[in-house]
TrEMBL record:
SUPFAM superfamilies for the chain: Acyl-CoA N-acyltransferases (Nat)
Record organism: Catellatospora coxensis
UniProt KW Transferase keyword: yes
Protein name, as recorded: Succinyl-CoA transferase Rv0802c
PROSITE patterns reported for this sequence: GNAT
Length: 228
């Protein structure tokens, strides 16, 4: 079976409304279709890499190729886990969790996108809460970092809801103009002090070695965690 050779294929995160996991082949195609339909208002660019400006067919193909490339470059020292987010069995977006030398740094970072028609429904905060639970409860992380342009109200709102604190800024040139990114950091202590959705995790123990970790930080199938 695939999970015998690549255990993250068996990883499952579940919240009250969502399931996060690696997609099958046809599910990846359906995810690409979500991207082709649109990810944001064309008048605003929330990403540093402007992949959403590609024509719909090329945008869809880029989702497939990017997914495969992240898994193909995986090592225990540096990995990126591009979990597809499912609602009612259908893909709605991607929640990425990544780390470098996690056993030493105890830090993970996130990135995500959500199909435009699935936005403004609280899905963005629920899917990031799911990977925060994975990182803090199962992977031994002590801090989770994220970033967003200063005018990206939606992303910054998710971070504020989950308890992130400011961690500095970055200044970037974008087609001849300045754009500023806010860095954000969530500590495990701040996460523990917030209410958060119930999250259950299956299949994490076989993944730990491939993530550069030893013993699990918690049981393989943890109890739902309603909050502090």
């Amino acid at each position: 079976m695939l999970i015998d050779h690549f255990p993250p294929a068996g990883l499952r995160l579940r919240t009250p409304r969502l399931e996060l996991r690696l997609p099958g082949t046809e599910e990846l195609a359906a995810l690409a279709d979500v991207a082709a339909e649109g990810v944001h208002d064309p008048a605003y660019m929330p990403f540093r890499i402007r992949w959403t400006e590609l024509p719909p067919a090329e945008r869809a193909r880029s989702v497939v190729l990017h997914h495969w490339s992240l898994l193909g470059q995986w090592t225990p020292h540096a990995w990126k886990l591009p979990l597809t987010v499912f609602r009612d069995g259908a893909p709605v977006g991607v929640q990425l969790l990544k780390a470098s030398d996690l056993a030493v740094t105890t830090e993970c970072s996130t990135a995500s996108w959500l199909g435009r028609r699935h936005q403004r429904q609280g899905i963005g905060s629920e899917m990031r809460a799911a990977v925060a639970h994975l990182a803090f409860t199962h992977l031994g992380a002590t801090e989770l970092v994220s970033s967003a342009f200063t005018d990206n109200a939606a992303s910054l709102g998710v971070s504020a809801k989950l308890g992130y604190a400011d961690d500095g800024i970055e200044r970037h040139e974008d087609r001849g103009r300045l754009r500023v990114i806010r860095r954000l950091r969530l500590t495990r202590q701040a996460w523990l002090e917030r209410e958060r959705p119930e999250v259950t995790v299956d299949g994490v123990t076989p993944c730990l070695e491939l993530m550069g970790l030893g013993l699990p930080a918690a049981s393989d199938h943890d109890r739902p965690h309603p909050g502090a």
